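General statements about sequence and structure are easier to judge against a single worked case. Part of our work consisted of pairing the sequence of a single chain with a tokenised description of its backbone. The amino acid sequence and the backbone structure tokens for this protein are reproduced below.

***
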Amino acid sequence: MIHPFILITHPNYQSLPISSMNTLVRSGGAWLVSPSMAVAALRRMRVSGLATSSSSSVPNWKGGVSMVQGASRGIGLEFVRQLLENNKNGYVVATCRNPKEATSLSDLKNRFSERLFIRKLDVTDETTIEESAESVREKYGSLNLLINAAGILSIPGVLQPETTLNKVEKSSLMLAYEVNAVGPILVMKHMWPLLKAGGGSGTDREVAVVANLSARVGSIGDNRLGGWHSYRASKSALNQLTKNVSVELGRRKDPVACILLHPGTVDTDLSRPFQRNVPDGKLFTREYSVQKLLHIINNTKKQDSGKFFAWDGQEIPW
């Protein structure tokens, strides 16, 4: 006989006064329990004061809690800086592969010691994503904004944008897909309970926002030049995955909007080898691009979920 289970996602699930905890099955940031155990747990929660409404059981952080994945340099680092400087009450979780080597993040930590939380997260290692989610849950209990900023276009001797079909290699395709598409969707997966708990609380938005940095070259409808197979395909995959999640969260009526952002061509390490043919006036500073993107994020409505925006607010065709 198959016994049904109930998923408990209460923010204090680890503190639930349930006996026989060894019989529970953990699933992400929740517990799968039998109906009888769930009823008993809820009764004890009422007695212990843990059974509160969702609005009171999660801390309402004034200014909100934002997370930037890929924050050690470039656009990600600039997001961290502007989020801290523009919102005097907001908290920022900055993640990167090697926090000890992220000197610019350390400088920001010295300036904003109480409001900046730095964690290790490697998008190619799901264990580090899970550990980051657990750290955020323990410290803040919720998130109001997730920015997936990490991405790769080229690595000397390893990955180069393909100008012709005969230069396409499986290793390049797989690496670009892993970092640019698989990584962000796994981060969304593990941060989703925190975003759902946070919603728009502490901010001027009605919903929490997931902003995934994509690229115009990932648009199939806008592709007229071809080339760059690995990068284009990985960003197209990111677009589809983000759209999928937006549909699911909308169906669940979760207070989370998922959007895609094209930052323009920005003067960063990623674009530097390919800036020669950028038209005058189209190479943006990090400060300008992030300012524009934050304006879009801060004005995101629930009905914007699943949309793909350029830096100037114009929608990009899929």
